UniProtKB/TrEMBL annotation:
Keywords: Membrane, Transmembrane, Transmembrane helix. The chain crosses the membrane at residues 7-27, 33-52. The keyword Transmembrane helix applies. This is DUF2061 domain-containing protein. Residues 6-57 form the DUF2061 domain. It comes from Stutzerimonas balearica DSM 6083. It comes from the Bacteria. Pfam families: DUF2061. InterPro entries: DUF2061_membrane.
């Protein structure tokens, strides 16, 4: 196994733990709750990710030209509706 991806994974796990710890500590001011949340959150997040992947596979998500261009069409309609910039300032 290559060392770099393993090191990157390990450092990301540490950052993830520290981020969760700091956020919860900032909200609660409690070290015990912060530590517990920082340990529990990655486990819960992993389980949710698994469920998300399963749901995504069941939907049979396929990229097609039509679905890919839908977002562009929606954005274009939004821009047309919003009108030119500064239109609300005109009398």
């Amino acid at each position: 196994m290559k060392q770099r991806p393993l090191l990157k994974t390990f450092t990301f796990a540490i950052l993830h733990f520290l981020t969760a710890f700091v956020v919860v500590y900032a909200l609660t001011g409690n070290f015990a709750i912060s530590g517990a949340a920082a340990l529990i959150e990655p486990v819960v997040n992993t389980f949710v990710f698994y469920l998300h992947e399963r749901a995504w596979q069941r939907l049979g998500h396929r990229r097609s030209t039509r679905s890919h261009s839908y977002g562009h069409d929606l954005f274009a309609r939004f821009l047309r509706r919003s009108g030119p910039r500064g239109a609300s300032l005109r009398r």
